[in-house]
Amino acid sequence: MIHFTTEKGTVRAVEGASFDLEHGEALGLAGESGCGKTTTALALMRLLPGNGRIVSGSIRYNGRELTDASDATLRRIRWKEISIIFQGAMNSLNPVQRVGKQIAEPIVIHEGVDGDDARRRAEELLDLVGIPRSRIDNYPHEFSGGMRQRAMIAMALACNPKIVIADEPVTALDVMIQAQILELLERLERELDLSMILISHDLSVLAETTEKVTIMYAGKFVESGRTVDVLTDPKHPYAQGLVAAFPDIRGTRVMPESIPGAVPSLIEPPSGCVFHPRCKFAFDRCERQEPALDEVAPGRRAACFLYPTVTEVPPRTLLTPKP
Amino acid sequence: MRVRDLRVWYPVRRGFLRDFFGRSSAWLRAVDGVSFDLRRGEILCLVGESGCGKTTTGKALLRLVDANAGDVFFEMPDAEYGRDETLRTDGEAASNEVDELRRKFSLSWKESRKWTLRDFLGLIVALVTASFLAITVPALFVGFFSVETAMSGSWNILGFGLAVGFLLGFVASTQPARPRKRVAALLAFLAIVELAFAQVFAFAVSAQFHGVLPLDVAQIYGTLWSTDPFAMLLGYTFAPILAAGVANVVIGMRLQAEGRAGIVMRQLRRRLHLIFQDPYESLNPKQSVYEIVSEPLLVNRLATSPEETMARVGRALKDAGLYPPEEFLFRFPHELSGGQRQRVSIAAALVLEPDFIVADEPVSMLDVSIRTEILQLLLDLRRSRGLTYLFITHDLSLAWVIADRIAVMYLGKIVEVGTAEQVIASPQHPYTKALISVVPSPDPRKKAQRIILKGERPDPADIPTGCRFHPRCPVAFERCGWNADEVAEELQSLQAEGRLPGISSIRAVDPRTIRVEMAPGSPPDQAVAALGAAVVAEKDSRLAFRGISVIRPSDGFVDVVLHEWEEPELLDIGAGNAVACHLVTPAKTFEAVTAGAD
Predict the structure, then answer these.
(1) E-strand spans in B211-332?
(2) Is the full-model pTM beyond 0.95?
(3) How far apart are the first and last CA of chain A?
(4) How far apart are CA B501 and CA B255, in angstroms?
(5) What are phi and psi of B212, to 5 degrees?
(6) What does the pLDDT look like over B440-456, one tens digit per residue?
(7) What residues in B contact A180, CB-CB < 8 Å?
(8) How many CB atoms lie within 10 A of CB B386?
(9) I need a labelling partner for A233 at 20 to 30 A (CA). Which of B19, B44, B365, B545 fits?
(10) Neighbours of B342 (CB within 10 A)
């Protein structure tokens, strides 16, 4: 549970986020803007801004608890164990520093090697992500958007991390460049045996790259499971709406659906299930009680009263699964 | 609306001196020959990567940027269009008639008047007349008075002439809202009348002031002329020349910038509208919703009373799905959600009740769950008002669901156009194929074989020869436009790998020839054989080698000659589909020489 203190009150940015990331796995975190995806990712690395704090819950990495870890422990873990590709490659690089130097910086800091070794390593990293070595002394403005994103990836890989968190790695890139970057990420995951957390608002991107996916809504996890299952047969009404909102270029030519209403304020979230004001299946219990993220089928969890207690409520037609 | 061969080129500045000496030949060809038709009530999607010229095309249609060439015919009757087509085939002979048609129907028509001999003669006659009048007329008037000089002193005369001339010329050139040709002589005449009257007036005032009876004016005038002929001449000719000159130049510039089309555009602006991409950027944060939506009405003076303005704003807001309108009228953009903001932009476009809307990425900044509502709104408006859309998007899957027809752009040119089904389900152009293959599908079971193109789009200031897609095209072949620089580069990289023994240097001598120099003591035949073998072996991994036509020894060198190429045209392949690719469209005659050793 992560809360932000603001002038207007406490923002309950993320509540009840729980997932497991296994070795070599790619996990997707999906949801609309403001639903807490990035906050969750930042919390994993304990990088929340000053007014945010983890109120409860635990983050365990290889049996180590991170929520109350000391700064020294965190320093050992950050970048060497868990690294992050920040959102917006365009703006995450320092415009007045050469790209090579920026990539070498974490190597110098975390591995204690000298500048020349770090530079050699930076060259290798550029090779790895498909940027010619000769561009090592360029400034970020000399790079195209795709190359900047590649440089960001190189930087995240600088200290051989085990887990890479990629926050919207392909947003704002052209579809062709997007495909190049996704392929690069897939190749790196395979070759370097990485675990990845991929954050994206675009379900189609996650569909292509991840094995497991979690859908967030207004700071809550509403559904998780294998990507194939969640995206082809979503259980939670929000997940159903979200999946149906994406046009499918390989599917039939139908207008995507929309979810009426707007995302609620996180300062005063609706009572009970956060989605009930927009949910077309909502019934009285949804308003009173908050559903837990329970197992609804093997390996699948959904936070919705329609499922675990299906016998308690009058039978109703569910949305037909998307073909 | 028919768009024909539209071009928007921006000059690339290469430093003052280079621009000054010799016109800059570097152009950034943002839109480079785009043609398409748009029928009433149709949605045409323009898709392509960023920087391919989609937005520029959309803006050029509305004349928000000026096209350098080409036509945008709006509401042109078919018969007239047919006439235009046939006239164009006649070439130069019919150019006047073509121009007449373009002047009448083309939104991008620019009046470009060249200076003819008649203009020069007219100007000279005007100036001579003006000078003559300037000298004689005031003398006539002044003849009736006799005052101590009110206008004496050379600088006074000169300054007065300058001021009157400039003022008149400026007023004459800026006053009309719509530029009209003014005869230079008329302006000159006005200047003189003004000067003379002012002079007389000044004399009269002076006479009153000094209480001197008007007597020997002619003498005074004579004295003025004899003592200060230079100042008089200058003062009295400067004014008309300046008036005529300023008016001529300014009017000429306006004619060039706006011309007839500019005048027509003012009326058409009410019927052609644009919805901008980013609702967070395109709304003025200091204006309330009412101000934003009513502005087009006020600018076009379409509403006569505040009540009518309010009624029309309310209707537009309601149409855009902001209901009840009263609740939104006096909100500011920061009080609205993203979807509501975009609805406000749509309302601002709708308030003039346009027929044609260019929607530039209207939903790309919105969350998916509200995206569809906006799309649905646009579709509903088409049904209820018969709107026509040019929908600009980078998202092919979006184009797939909303477009009637799709046009795919690459580097300023349309490479494929057709109905949505045809373009998406059976793409013909290699670029379209690749683009479609990389669009992710939300259904993980439908992973497609992705065709990932190498590299990034080339610089539009430096467009590749031949087919502009060939350097990235996975199936490029002989006549796609491989030029000597590209092939030489590949050969040099082979040489760097040490696979071309006995060769010392490789360089491109002209666009179709590469000269290879041998190391001393190495016979040309050996080099030819080495090159041939390497080229044949690498033909599939280095596509540029496919452009090689002949390798032959000449004068102690070896010349590598390339195939001829030409840029593929957008040709119909039936059923309204058109593709610009040599692989799809029927080939013209080319020398049938296979690549490789000779």
Answers:
(1) 272-275
(2) no
(3) 35
(4) 65
(5) -95, 140
(6) 888 878 777 788 887 77
(7) 452
(8) 10
(9) B365
(10) 29
